# Entry
Amino acid sequence: MDFFTLSIWILTALLLIIFFIKDKKKTTDALKKAFFMGRGMALSIFGVIFAIGLLLALLPPEEIAHIIGGQNVYVATILAAAFGTVTLIPAFIAFPLIGTLSSAGVGIMPAVAFTTTLTMVGVATIPFETREFGLKFALIRNGLSFVFAIAIALVMGVIL
Amino acid sequence: MSKVVKMLKNNLFFAAIILAYIVLSFFSPNFAIQGIKNSGYYIKEMLMIMPVIFVLTALLDTFVPKETIIKYLGREAKTKGVLVSFVLGSISAGPIYAAFPFCVMLHKKGATVRNIVIILSSWAVIKVPMLLNEAKFLGLEFMAVRWVLTIIAILIFSYIADKIIKDKDLPQIAEEEKHGVTINTDACMGCTICTKKYPELFEMESKKATIKEYSDLDSGKLNDAIRSCPVLAIKYIK
# Structure
């Protein structure tokens, strides 16, 4: 568990104690609310998780690196951004992979595009996002994030 | 039977994924097994953060008044709202979907679409542990430049998103406002809390709460029921 996750647990535990002393009934009601909120979202969350598992099985990160590596830099950037949207790879796997990718000669642009869409845009999370925020919100947020991920990559390619 | 159909209908995506696994295990069982193995890591990641996010969201929902949220994240908060959103997103933990319940709660309490988009985006890309990792593998310069550019990008596209997406595009605001006591039956999960809080008014009918006929309302009991509803499905408009 990293420092931030741990801090959130500690903060929540502290709040729970403070609120419990302040208002026992409201706090237990809040806990019930949390439980039902979790139950209501459980299937959506498991849907996302198993979708990612399947996507990674069909398209392992090494395969992605291989495909991107063989292209010219602009095609590679768009491909990298696209692959980034379908998968959701934990940072500790993604960064070494991106490191090898950029040192293998594809340059910095695909690496940046991949990093940004990887975490910000998610095809696997769109159904869940739609359920919580509506289709319009989900499509526009993901669409804009995708476009700006490529923009960030292009600017970085020029600067660095 | 109809219950199963209804549950599938409400969780189409989950059903589709399960179906994909079943089909795949016939044609190439190795992929299906690998998929489940991969999912293991994500389940661990989810369990580390989701329970605490749900508790924190419910606590803040119960104890932080609407006015406070509006003050810091609402329309009038302007630059302050943008700043608060960036900080909230950056000190978070867990994958982007962990932010969904938290942001839904904030929006219900009056946070703007722009600030919600900022929280979601910074939750995804500018987390501190992630930045440290990035600097380690890709160099400090790479990390710093990407960090600055990402913040600028989020500032711009959250502004665009806010212009396109109206508050009413988000589901919870789109509900029709009817007078009297109403229950949003799509949201109701049949937890029976309201029937315990105010048995004279609420009853269960095929696993959903319904309202009995009433002439007088006990506002104390009613407010208690409204507040206790885990999905905020009960509304009362005079």
